[in-house]
Amino acid sequence: TSFKSHLVLVLHSLQYFYTGSSGLTAFPEFVAVGMVDGVQIGYYDSNIQGIVLKQDWMERYARDDPDYLERLTGIAKGDQQWFKVNIGILKKIFYQIGGIHIYQKMYGCEWDDDDDSTDGYEQYGYDGEDFISLDLKTLTWVAAVPQAVPTTQSLNQDKAGLQYQKYYYTKECVGVLKTALSYGESTLQRTDRPRVSLLQRSPSSPVVCHATGFYPDRVVVFWRRDGQELHEQVDPGEVLPNHDGTFQVSVDLNLTAVPQEDWGRYECVVQLRGIEDISTPLDPSGITIPIIIGFLVLLLTAAAAAVGVFVYKKRNGEWIKLSKRTDT
Question: Start-end ranges of CATH 2.60.40.10 in the chain?
Answer without folding.
Answer: 195-306
